[in-house]
Write a structure and sequence with these properties.
Elements (H helix, E strand, L loop, with lengths): L6 H31 L4 E5 L4 H14 L3 E6 L1 H7 L7 E7 L1 H10 L9 E7 L5 E6 L1 H5 L5 H22 L4 E4 L2
Antiparallel strand pairs: 1-5, 1-6, 2-3, 3-4, 4-5
Helix pairs in contact: 2-6
């Protein structure tokens, strides 16, 4: 014969179920808030330039600050080659060999972080944004003092690259 749930057992189960649901909702909200904030050290500058112009300005700024565009990846360029139009976006990967050698001397594991990335995206206003994470934020999880010194050397270089590319009138925002 199946067990019957008494009203007393049901009465105690309801508060536990409520507590579980509230916990799940709070956990989901916390994860959603973190996703909206992005990673620590993330900065976005809204510029007055359209996407293709900003991309060229970024490449010029990288060179002007004696860094190297190691690679570029762009879903919008790939989609265009297939006849599909999506808003412009490109990840520009930036580094320099002497910094790479120093980084690897300090931490082989940190090698996965190089090259560092700057993201160019068209926005809904017809202009484009630049987003990047500070090198200090990228390398912080390694808890390596020598790597942190390298990151502190790179921080002002990347800030200057973005500032030059974004140009006058850019609206910087610190996402996290």
């Amino acid at each position: 014969m199946p067990d019957r749930v008494t009203s007393s057992k049901r009465h105690h189960a309801i508060p536990r179920l409520r507590a579980l649901l509230i916990g799940l909702l709070l956990t989901t909200a916390a994860f959603s808030a973190q996703a909206a904030m992005g990673y620590p050290g993330t900065h976005t500058d809204t510029t007055r330039y359209r996407y293709p112009v900003l991309l060229q300005r970024l490449i010029a700024a990288v060179k002007a600050h004696h860094m190297v565009v190691v690679a570029q990846a762009s879903a919008s360029h790939g989609a265009a080659a297939r006849g599909i139009k999506i808003p412009g976006n490109a990840v520009v990967m930036v580094f320099r060999n002497d910094f790479a050698v120093t980084m690897l001397k300090d931490s082989v594991a940190a090698g996965i972080e190089a090259p560092l990335r700057i993201y160019v995206t068209a926005n809904r206003h017809g202009t484009a944004d630049l987003t990047y994470r500070t090198p200090s934020a990228v390398f912080a999880p390694y808890h390596n003092p020598a790597l942190n010194r390298l990151a502190r050397t790179l921080d002002p270089i990347f800030a200057a690259i973005v500032r030059q590319a974004a140009g006058p009138g850019a609206k910087p925002s610190h996402l996290s």
